[in-house]
Amino acid sequence: MKPAHRLLALLLLFLSACSSGVASDGTFKPIAAVSAQQALQLDPKQAWWADHRWRYATDEAAEAAFQALLTRESPWPEWHQANVVTLPAGLRFEMALAPGQGTDRPGAFGTFDRIADVRFVRQSLAVKTAWKPQVDRVVTYEIVDPLPADTGMVGPQIDVPANLYLPGGASQFEMKVPASERAGHLRVVAVRPIR
Amino acid sequence: MSGPEGIRVDARAGRIDWDEDGAARQADVEGAVDARRDREKDRLVVLVRAQDREGVAILSLDGETIAFVRPPEGYAITHFAHADGPILVGQGEASSDGWQDWHFAVDDECRALRRLGPAY
Predict the structure, then answer these.
(1) What whole-number distance in Å separates Cα of residue A176 and Cα of residue A173?
(2) Where are the alpha helices (DSSP H) in A92-192?
(3) From the DSSP assignment, how many helices (H) and strands (E) are in chain B?
(4) Distance between CA A144 and CA A146 in Å, rounded?
(5) The pLDDT value given to residue A91
(6) Cα–Cα distance between B2 and B46 in angstroms, integer?
């Protein structure tokens, strides 16, 4: 990492430390080193470095992790340990759909967070443009038949063609059933357009 | 039903209508559910979901059927990734290289679907 980039990353960490901490009600409120707005403005590697450098003992180890993220594109954070559980009937979740994607053809990933808009899909669910070029609806599903799924948090991504750092951080699960069986576990509760 | 790029797919009738150089064109493809124009290869890519066959029909811009390509084993082709492009999404029965769902494109020879990158 260039010295100027490292200085900027350290400055961001310092500024975020100043802006996070004790809230008016006395509780501690952690704030990500890089806000969503900063993530859109910074060089993607600088932004990733500001958020994740601390996880690694050396710059070399952090650089290796960054390169692995670019190559492997894992939807999970590097620290994720597979945690396959059975999601119970009655549980509701949301999923972003592409134009032309039927609600009877759900993807493999869902979230327990509310998908407010396409920006949330890109930034918080870290869905690269290449993975899902267009999103036009959100469907709320309810699980009607217990569903095995790997659960955890969305990992960060680098959207190289868009030159963007996608911080991730929302909740996420990946269905662990064959694609043809996904819809059989689900019931559509509501569908709404998003932009 | 009106679709993108001036392509209209009547899924019930299995009929596709589009305009080519100002002239109306039409083709009958049983089970057609959606279609896109492949501008790079000058052809139409039609997603087909009939009782006895599922896959992708490739038509010339005159409406002649060039080929029918079945999904790779273990995948169902579910929808187009773009409103205005011929890339398809295949949902898998099992994970491959860490992902269940992938993008696919019809190869140049119209013989197979070529796997591209992961699909979310």
Answers:
(1) 9
(2) 118-123, 179-182
(3) 0, 11
(4) 7
(5) 98
(6) 14
Strand segments, DSSP code E, in A31-155 are: 84-87, 92-97, 109-110, 137-143, 147-153
Chain B residue closest to A128 (CA)? Answer: B120
Q: Could you tell me if A102 lies within 8 Å of chain B, comparing CB atoms?
A: yes
Give the C-alpha separation, A7 to A15, whole Å.
Answer: 12
Q: What is the mean pLDDT of chain B?
A: 93
Quote ipTM for the complex. Answer: 0.90
Listed in sequence order, the residues at least 6 apart from A186 whose beta carbon sits closer than 8 Å to its beta carbon are A106, A141, A142, A143, A144, A147
In degrees, to the nearest 5, what angle opens at C-alpha A28 toward C-alphas A25 and A32?
Answer: 125
Q: Is B93–A134 a contact, with Cβ atoms under 8 angstroms apart? A: no
- Angstrom CA distances, A59 to A54, A150, B70, B75, stand at 9, 31, 48, 41
Long-range contacts of A113-117 (CB under 8 A, 24+ apart): A113/A170, A113/A171, A115/A194, A116/A194, A117/A194, A117/A195
Take residue B118 and report the two structure tokens written for it.
Answer: 């992961």
Spell out a b/e string for A126-136, using b for 16 or more CB atoms within 10 Å of the CB, else e: bbbebbbbbbe
What distance in Å separates residue B115's CA from the closest CA in chain A?
A: 13
pTM above the 0.80 mark? yes
| B94 in A contact zone (CB under 8 Å) | yes
Looking up tokens 């493999």, which residue turns up? A108
Q: Are the C-beta atoms of B77 and B88 separated by less than 8 Å?
A: yes
The model's pLDDT over A119-162, given as tens digits with 9 standing for 90+, comes to: 999 999 999 999 999 999 999 999 999 999 999 999 999 999 99
Let me know: does A149 contact A87? Beta carbons within 8 Å.
yes
| CA distance readout (Å), B107 to A7, A99, B49, B76, B87 | 48, 23, 20, 17, 11
